[in-house]
Structure prediction request, 755 residues.
Amino acid sequence: MDPEFLSKLREAFKEEAAEQLQSISTSLIALEKSPELSKTTIESLLRTFHSLKGSARAVNVGTLEQCCQTIESLLVGYRDAGISIPGRVASTLNDVVGSIQKTIHDLGSVPDEELETDLQNTLSALAALEPSGVIAMPEKPQAAPDGGPESTIVPGSRLDAGSSVRIQVDKLDEVVKLSEELVNAKLAFAQRLVECQELSSLLNQWSRRWQRLRPELENEVMRRTSLAYRKNQDYSPQTNALREFLDLHDSFVGSLMESINAIEKSVNADRRGIDTLVDTLLSRGRELTMVPFSVLRDLLKRIAWDISRQQGKRVHLKIKGGDVEIDRNILDELRDPLVHLIRNSIDHGIESPEDREALGKSPEASIEITLEPIGGGKVRISLKDDGKGIDVAAVRAAAVEKGIAGAEKIEELSDKQVMQLLFRSSFSTRDAVSHISGRGLGLTIAKEIAEKLNGSIELSSLKGRETVIQITVPVRRATMVGVTARVGSQTVVIPTVSMRSAVRARDQDVRMIQGRWTMSYNERLLPVVRLADILQVHSQTSIEDSTALIVGSIEQPIALLVEDVTGEQEVAVKNLPQPLTRVRSIAGATQLKNGDLAVVINMNDVLTSSILVTTLTTGEFPAAPPTPAQSKPPVKQRILVVEDSITSRVLLKNILETAGYLVSVASDGQDGWEKVKSEPFDLVVTDVEMPRMNGFELTEKIRSEAALADLPVIVVTSLASLEDRRKGVEVGASAYFVKSNFEKSNLVDMVKRLI
Prediction:
């Protein structure tokens, strides 16, 4: 056989054999635990070993073919004799399968002579398994179990192509990544539309100014005409030129406005088409890389079986929700953390069978992996064991012993805070290091991978009963929606999902307390930190001129200062090239819709930065001090801003709050409708194009409710056509503003007029 062809053939064989051996290993583990499954399990094993044998012959690995034939004969002997396969035999067969897996993995990278030696050792181990009086081991490969002629099938080949093809994952990933580049084309169209709207706005501004100037020019023409008439003179060339300009100007500007409006409509239509095409292509492309979590089942069961056997423990691994699909790349990243967590669970948490029986537990421990989609394109993966739980006292003692915290300080921490120490690198409660665990790296690796995937990890435990680790990650790779902000002289992108709100610092109560800057927000004092300090970027902007982004957890929110928020857009995040693959606080880079490049902030790094950690105190921040009764301001009128764009939402909120109103916000029409029904408002400001419920539908609902029929509604939108304006009037809008012609003074004046 041609060496080059044989090499390609063996690569295909390795991929196929890996899947077959995983399936075999799972069946053998099940057989060892439940011998009564022998009949059906043996039939399945026979078919798989028979396929593996034919493939081994096709790639000239004769000794492997002999191994498969020997195992077939062994299994047929037990089947025909009606004898259950002993657990000892199933266990040894599993070891043999492990040896074969290693041999196949080394195929092509290790000399054939070494592989032959390993396979001969495997054959010797199989010979010792001959069940006396049941079968005689064959000296050479026999016919197939069904007695029919045996044909050699080339691995990966098909007799019938069917409706599917096998494609390399790398090639598929490359296509998906290339399709993600189309996001830039989508953003470019959006930018062209903005430029058209700006041009239209400039022309409208000129038209308004012209309407003010025209009477003066007409008067000047009339004055010159009258003067020439009285003097019985001809009109001057300048007067004639001015007269012609007046006659031509309106028709020229009108034609220009019609052309710009036509271009704007065309660009907008193209943008919508491109948006739909790109979004559909990305969605379909990402679906191609989705695989069920159950593809890891065989591997995880094998790991649990190996470790529990080594430690003399009995463990049953269950997987619920294995049909939940996750992007293959994300699943590949999760594989190592899950293996580490299973190893830790068995080594640290699961008791020996004798100890479990003494505690009134079943001698066989349970590890349960549950997958639960939680919405927002994310899935929660819970790993729960029924072992002895986490000894918090031991964690406290280890923290003091390792110098992480003093004895007094560690006692101030809650049990939940203490357990978070287990995520620190090299932190372990074990005195000795084994080949399984004890180095304090398992949970650290799991945390790093979860955060790398824009996810999170949580740990909880009940002493003596259970330990639960929950990993929340996206189910698929996705383009990110981010807020663009200025930090020093740089523009950065901050993931919108990591932000809870954005407010102007000057509108909040910012003060120095105990040597630390704090900000009063929603009746809580939040620590204030500059993003520029964390990124080590020079900034001269004062705190009162900054914008505060409310980030962090609900339990401990943080005010993160940036110079300004400049926009919001969808971005395709690209990894940084070598040697910048891991720069702290930077998740990657992206191209903005105006063509500029910007770095994307890694909020997990920001929230764990040394500057931020030293700013925080161990306990909770106190509640904001109440305002004395005698200094209470008059009751402010309440306005609800309904806007899906965070940038527009912040802008409108700041304009109205500066004007002295109390402002609440809603992220879309449905959210706005629920708030209008549950809270009293004096006025509603709404966008039109929003998910779930648009602004016209919201206005219509408000008008249909007798109790809300008189509530003023102002529409602020980018929809400028006469048809859209007419629609606004029909549904009952009190006023209609177009964003391209928007002036904040006009909005405030209208609000004052309506309430």
Remarks:
- The CA atoms of residues 314 and 364 lie 5 Å apart.
- Confidence is low (pLDDT under 50) at residues 132-162, 432-439, 617-633.
